[in-house]
Amino acid sequence: MALIGFVCSGVPRARAFVETRSVSKSTGANFARVARRCGRVVAMAAEKSDAPTAKFTPGTGKVSKSAEKMKLEPEEVFFDGKPSWTELVVPALTILTVIGIIPFIAAAARQVWVKYRVTSRRIAVDGGFQGKDHVEIVYRDIEEIRYIRRMGGSAADMVIFLRDGAKLELRSVPDFKNIYGFILKQLPEDAREKSQPSF
């Protein structure tokens, strides 16, 4: 028989501890009376180690087996891909000049190593040498977003300002109108109001 021990306090939830040992029925009744006085307690009791999780019902002195498990909504991936290829157009046209070589190499490297991932919970960027650097932010940390459109609006450079003062820059985000519209919907209301509106 399982002994249910618990701590009664003023916090919203009392901590429950389960310890297996033999006890008398009178001892179990004493625990039930104390539980009713505490008002709220969660306990787990099982005769076997593989018994289902139980939920203690305050005020009844009984343990119910109808415990509910909290489930998070599955993460939705809206976009997972590389920067827009259009960032190569202008550098390619100027590659014959000395000035155009460096921008072309930088844009080509981003096409190979940079990857953007936008989901219902976060924005993630893989970049750096061989794509080994990983940056991930959640929407509640975003304070404001600004952008500059490229190639007639098919792509855009986006700067994300965080509440701690840091910022994250995403170059040549493809299908920008749809991606940015999705991001705006995930932002807290104050960040959405500060951010540049969609076009």
From TrEMBL:
Superkingdom in the source lineage: Eukaryota
Membrane-spanning parts: 88-113
Pfam families, per database record: bPH_2
YdbS-like PH domain residues: 113-182
Calcium recorded as keyword: no
Entry-linked InterPro entries: YdbS-like_PH
UniProt KW keywords: Membrane, Transmembrane, Transmembrane helix
PANTHER family registered for this protein in UniProt: NAD(P)-LINKED OXIDOREDUCTASE SUPERFAMILY PROTEIN
Annotated protein name in UniProt: YdbS-like PH domain-containing protein
Highest classification ranks of the organism: Eukaryota, Rhodophyta, Bangiophyceae, Porphyridiales, Porphyridiaceae
